Amino acid sequence: MSGWTNDQTETDLLWKATVENDGQESACGECKDKWRLLWQIRPRALTAAITDPDPAAAQRVRSHDGDEKD
What we know:
Strands 1-4-3-2 form a 4-stranded mixed β-sheet. With 70 residues, it is α+β, with helices and mostly antiparallel strands. Strand 2 and strand 3 form a beta hairpin. It has helices at 8-20, 44-50, 55-64, and strands spanning 2-5, 24-25, 31-32, 38-43.
């Protein structure tokens, strides 16, 4: 399942709420809800950057996506 947010703050709030409501962390920044459905919650700006028409720009974003974990 995918969910898009307006900014990183909203992403963090939804991710945290999902995990804290009987969910769990998963690989690559994804999380599972209490029914064990896998969610990928990301800001729309990240999706736009990953799909940038400039292949080099998109690759730079993809090469760093998921490097950091708060």
